[in-house]
Amino acid sequence: MDDLIEGAEGSVTRSWAERGGASPYVPGNPTEMLDNLRLLLRAVDENRPPDDVLGWSSDDTTVRDAVYALAKSGLVVRQGTPVQFGLTPVGRDYLRGGDDGLLAAALHANIRFFGEILAELGDGLTHVELQAVAKEKYGLEWRSLDQIRRRVYWLRATGMVDYWTNNKILLTDRGRELLGRLDLVDPAELTGPPVNGDDVVDLAEAPPMLAQRLAELDQEQLAARSRVVGYVAGGTNIETINVLVAAVLEPVPRARFVRLCVETFQVAESSGEQTLNTLRSLGLIDQVGPDAFSATAVAAEWVSSGDPLDFVRILHSKVALVGELLTLMSGAARASEITKALASSYATIRLSRDEVTRRLAFLSEAGLVERLGNSIRRTALGAAFAGSVPLLATALEPQAADRADVVSAASRADVLRLRERLVETSVDSGNFKRFEETLVEAFRALGVDVERHGGAGRTDLLVSLWVSPTEQIRIAVEAKTDGGGVVTEQDVKFDALAEHRTLHDARVTLLVGPGFSNRLVQWAADKDVVLVTAVQLADMLARHAGAPLYPHEFMALLGDGDDDAHERVWRRLERRQSVIAHLLDIMWKSANDPVDIEYGEGALGVREIWRESKRLLDVPMDKTEIQEALALLSTPFLSAVATSGQNHVATTSPDAVAARLRSLADMIDNRGRPAIVPPVNYEPRRSTTPETPPRPGEPDVNPADVRAWALANGRGVSQRGRLSTRLIQEFLADSN
């Protein structure tokens, strides 16, 4: 909100990055606009309440709405709590009788491509031609003529240009005189080379406690940071957050903080509650009593310093991929391109474009990035900042060799945090939106697509399950909170749920809440409504982390509500994983057991594997399970098992198989690109030393020759370890 109306530095021209992109707006044609503007400025000067109807003849616009429509004009500022508006020195001078040149200079100082229009007109240009200039020279890719027309209207109203009947816009003498006094941007600076961080910048050090927090961040903590910034009343900008944190430097009750949000930003009480939760998750506010909240120590340091960089440092310590984002900005790029770059470099942390845009807004406000039309570029200060904070390693960096451990730790932390939040937010009846946001995270963690809708006549969430190229199943999700932990039949309108299913073409409704009354459970069964408690969904998250389900398997969990049927879905997958792991372990032990090697070359048949599984598992492997596992392990990619007749032998260790599967997972995550830089090809020197020295009295043979002979004759043989005496004797007999 504040960034729409801030600015009172007179006609001192802001940098291009600081200037607004949207033109101020007042109704009327060029002959009426200035009278309407003065009416607004007079209302502000007289301290009329923000919700008063202004009195423009065209509509019932309030003072508040009219001020916000002025955007970054440099004429009005916000002040006080509850919110009031005041005139800047320029706004006051203009109202007191300043000429129109003062107004035009103020608009140029605060919005992009205003005075620059005067410099580009030459012998005259049309609106369409000006739009092309704005795009090609200034990087302003406006899709319509609206922003051009608004600027030209202001220039016509102030007498700086004329509009001719041939659709040309031409400079007037007054415009030419003003042009000579304006500080214009050089278009070459906007399309020049990107900032590479080599410039010397003054990067202030972090305050002591904040510096200590940053120094203590390790890879596990960096990987476990929150993906979501969260909602803040008044907009997610640094100035607004500073105001809120400054208000709780001394402990205040929850109700007082909520009232501050309501009165300052005209939001609902639930939005104030949500704001408090967001600031707590960002490490800016902490609960210090049964009903008391206060700024954290690092937040108090930031309020004291007033440096926006300290806020970004706090944000980086709590929210994923803030400083990391700066390292990927090698040149000017759009938010969508930056989002893709983050997804490529940090495949395990998926951010939506909206979340990336929020981060960029904070970075821009702190001067770490600058906007060039629809693109964003890192500043020298941004490059220096990125080098001053600990960063999460990417998959391509050498320090990410333990990436699997980092990802595993991050996944565990995420699952634990989500499980706790699901249960906690389901009983927070004063802030249902927080529960909805947590559900969005939970469904994404389950690997399904989810959209948040809400609003009258619409479902809260819409989940899409990809089943096949020709089939997707939609599920309408309704979130219900209850402070007592039980959602009753009085809380649910089944007719509305049916309408939501029809609207979204959903197959079923999933109602998620803390718990449900017995009558609601009975009614839901006949209404195509599946009930899932927050605890059940939390358990799904935990099991999914260890045994991920495919979408069609997930759909089986939403069937008839039979807990035994649900358990069978998980158990089948967990059983298959257990069988493969135990079978591989059994075969590797046999391949390295001297007795098994002596009597069977370390090879095992299906019956021997079954017998060994009886000792390890409560339910022994059956023949089909064993054969399916052997088929998987003997695929060319894994080659973990060699088969000879009815027997099978391990060719490598379980650790090596796990490493190969992890490399495949990394390759899939990176869409076919290797997760690490491949080594330089070289030809190693081959050793002529026998693998193992012969036993006393044992014939001196080359083990490789024996193994080649055994495989050629259909004999099972281990690729490692000592060869049996009988096998060597048979090899020598056949050779002679």
TrEMBL record:
> Which keywords does UniProt give here?
DNA-binding
Coiled-coil spans in chain: none
An annotated Gene Ontology molecular function: acyltransferase activity
The answer, when asked if Nuclease is one of the entry's keywords, is no
- Which chain regions cross the lipid bilayer? none
Q: Which domain of life is it from?
A: Bacteria
Q: Which residues form the Lsr2 DNA-binding domain?
A: 702-731
Q: Where is this region: Disordered?
A: 675-703
Matching InterPro entries, A to Z?
E3-bd_dom_sf (IPR036625), Lsr2_DNA-bd (IPR055370)
State the protein's name: Lsr2 DNA-binding domain-containing protein
Taxonomic source organism: Actinosynnema pretiosum subsp. pretiosum
